[in-house]
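Deviations from the work plan: none for this task. Representative record:
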Amino acid sequence: MKTCPYCAHNNREGVFFCEECGHPFVGDQEAVLATTRLIQQEAAGANRVAWGTAHFHQNARLVVRVREHPEALVFHLQDELLIGRADPQMNSQPDLDLMPYGAVEQGVSRRHAKIQRIDETLMLVDLESTNGTYLNGQRLLPNQPRMLRDGDEVRLGQLVLHVFFS
Amino acid sequence: MDILHNLYAILGLAPEAKQEEIRDAYRVLARRFHPDANRNEGADVLFRDIATAYEILGDPTQRVRYDAQRIRSAEVNEPNYFSLRVTPSKRVLPTLDEPQVFYLLVEIVPMREVTKQGRHSTPLNLVLVLDRSTSMRGARLDKVKIAARQIIDQLGPKDILSVVAFSDRADVLIEAGPVTDPAELRATVSIMRANGGTEIYHGLAAGIEQCRKHAGPHMVNHVILLTDGRTFGDEERSLALAKEAAKEGIGISAMGIGDEWNDVFLDALAAASGGTSAYINSPAAVVRFLNDRVRSLGEAFVERLQLTVAPDADVTLESAFKLHPTPQPLATSPQPIPVGTLEKKRPSAVLLQLQMPPSDKEHFRTVVRLDVTGDVLAANRMGYKVISDISVEVAHNPEQEEPPSVILDALGKLTLYRMQQKAEQALQQGDAANATRRLENLATRLLAAGQEELAQIAKEEARRVSQTRTFSEEGRKGLKFGTRMLLALPQPGGDSGA
């Protein structure tokens, strides 16, 4: 329950503005009050809080963080990056091997997904993985590329990754 | 079912799936959406598709036949005409012993490389239904004529146009036909004279009749109704007519000038087909509104878009609001929900409000399945379908996250629109004190958002309501459509994929 400090109305969790009086609950009150202004600043590049852009410039590097692991994995992406778990017996050696992050327990397939570079954008493709690939919670259909953005959350089975462009 | 529907996508599988994978996928989906397990209206609609897909793919003999048909059809190599991009209000929901609200911004994004192919604009089958009742005399009718003449100049020989003028009867000024002689059509519009009362049904019926003559699946079939008056006793019949027209693929937009017309009625009329309704507060704005509407229709890439929202059994859909291309409240029932036209260059966007059940378990869970279907005009592809399953993680005390600014911005403005609606409802229930308080709150919020003009109107209406227990029509409509139009401000994002 979220009690509004302005009108004392009891709101459900998850609302961002009081359903009774419109009082904002999130972030810097002044900024949120003037959301329109916030968006305009953002458009001008002054203060970007949105989840990233899709532009992956020529010399950009792809940074992947596995949740709950501090180290950043950095890739200079050529054509594509295969993501999965290594299995020498099956001759599987993906570019991004998630074995050190509990890939088996989290349901990552050997060939789970790939990231393709097309001009200046990156596309995420599920490779018919058993437990699915999710982009910001949206399940991908097998073999159907979806555009990646800076800051996106990618989930392979139960394993959560965050991708950044730098 | 249409062979062009991708049955594999409905089950969320690749075409190479093994028979037991098909069975497993069906079982999971049946548990989510079977009407015995899930009372949500959209679930029922989508389960029918799922059952049909399983009927065919689950039977090896039928599957072989389907696969052969599918390979022969164009569908295998079909491009993606549009895709769905969904932004959730939170990436991780907290475990809670009470329900919580969860928002999804659903963007329907035209794929750039596909829209580039059809350079020429989409042929229109357009009918203007124009009010020429006595109250239109003077500036209003003059501006309507100017707008109509400009629209004639925008159209070409590939387009079909008809103009119907109505008062308490309807006259077909221009019979539906190609725009080959614009000069003559312009002259015909000019002779329109104001006289008589307002009976929308007659005008609408004649307009839809004209639209039917050339209506086809490859065109944008649209009736634009413009009125300044309140219609009496024929509202039910008019709505029934609009629903019938929607089924035939004819869309309706409704525009009201001045303060007399019934906004609830015009909203409903437009909602039947996912069309637009608008408030034109001055005669001068008529020209711009009509031209914008026609230009937007000419930019159509996909027509007759329909959205089905199928929440999981323990999730409920509370509201849906279309943000783009024009802000419009949507009814969550019946499903599928008509969302109108997808333009070539601009994504359409719908904000969904869902309620999630209490949960004490940490897990990943599915939330909702979305299905968007529409007719891709340039590619002559009817009933193109995109499906998306949305899921979310539920965890104990997740990290604080900044909500996505697109959602925050839309919600901030939507809150203003809702406050105005609640004030209206309060007054309808005879609670003037409540309505006054809501209007005062609205004025405060509008001022904080930098909307001084609207804030002023809200303040005046608050005073009026507290003294006289009524709104002024002008103020009420001004607030309703003014707060609604705030949502139309340009929004960042919406790139299409490669």
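Chain B touches chain A through 67 residues (CB under 8 Å).
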